[in-house]
Design goal:
25% of the residues lie in helices and 22% in strands. The chain is α+β, with helices and mostly antiparallel strands. It has three domains: 47 residues, no CATH class; 94 residues, Outer membrane lipoprotein wza domain like (Outer membrane lipoprotein wza fold like, Roll), CATH 3.10.560; 85 residues, wza like fold. The strands form four sheets. Strands 9-8-12-10-11 form a five-stranded mixed beta sheet, with helices on one face. Keywords: Cell outer membrane, Ion transport, Lipoprotein, Membrane, Palmitate, Polysaccharide transport, Porin, Signal, Sugar transport, Transmembrane, Transmembrane beta strand, Transmembrane helix, Transport.
Amino acid sequence: MKFSNVLATLLSVCLFLSCASRKDIAYLQDVDNQTLANTSYEPIIKSDDLLSVIVAASQPDLTIPFNLPQVQGNYQDGDSQAGIKTYLVDSEGNIDFPVIGKVKLGGLTRTQAKNLLEEKIKEYIINPSVNLRMLNYKISVLGEVNKPNTYKIVSERITILEALSLAGDLTIYGKRDNILVIREIDGKKTFNRLNLTNKDFVSSPFYYLNQNDVVLVEPNKTKMNSSVIGPNISVTISALSLITTIAIILFR
C-alpha cells in the first residue's frame, strides 16, 4: 500500500508538471464580444530608407528629366527588381531628386512625401503623378518562434500578430505576456514590452511594426528550467508517468 501511495503521488506530480494553463497560452484573452476601434497606420520615412520614386504625367516625354535612368535603378535584395528607380534617404532625411534637387522626406508618411513631390514637380509639369514606395521595409522576429528570420514586407504595413504568423507563431515555450519590440526612435534604440494575452496591446503604438523593428520572444519558465535539467525532460516525465501507471496497476 505504501508503495502504491508513493507511486500515485509521483504520478500526480508528473501530471501537474505537464499541465499548462490557458492564461499562459491564449492570445487576447479578454476580448469576448468586444469591438476594438480600428487604428490607421502609415510608415514614417527614415534615414537609410531606400525609396522607389516614379513620375508619370499625361505627356510622358516631360517626365523623363524627373526619372532616373533604369540602369541606375537596379535593386536586388533576394530577388531581382530591374528597372526600379531608387533613392537613398540620407542621415538628414533628404533625397537628391532630379531637377528639383534636395528634398526632405524624412519624418513624413509615404502619402505626405508623395504629395510634397507632386507639389514641387507641378512647377514644371501639369498634374504630375508620383508613385512612391519603400523598398527596404523589413522586420525581424527572433527567439521562441518556429521560423525566426528577417522578413521583407511588401505592403509596408504589418501588425505584430501578422509578423508572428510569418514566423510560424510562437512555440509552446514562448512567453506571450512579455514580447519585446526593439525600435529606433529619433536615432535611439528603444525597448518596448507587449502583453499579447491582453487586448490593450492592439491600441499600442507597437501593434503596427515600423521598418527595421525587431520582435524578440522570450522563453517561458518551462523552457528555462528544461535548459538546466535537460532538453528531454518532457519525454522523461511522460515515460515516468507511464511506468508509474503500470506499477500502480500491478501492485494493487
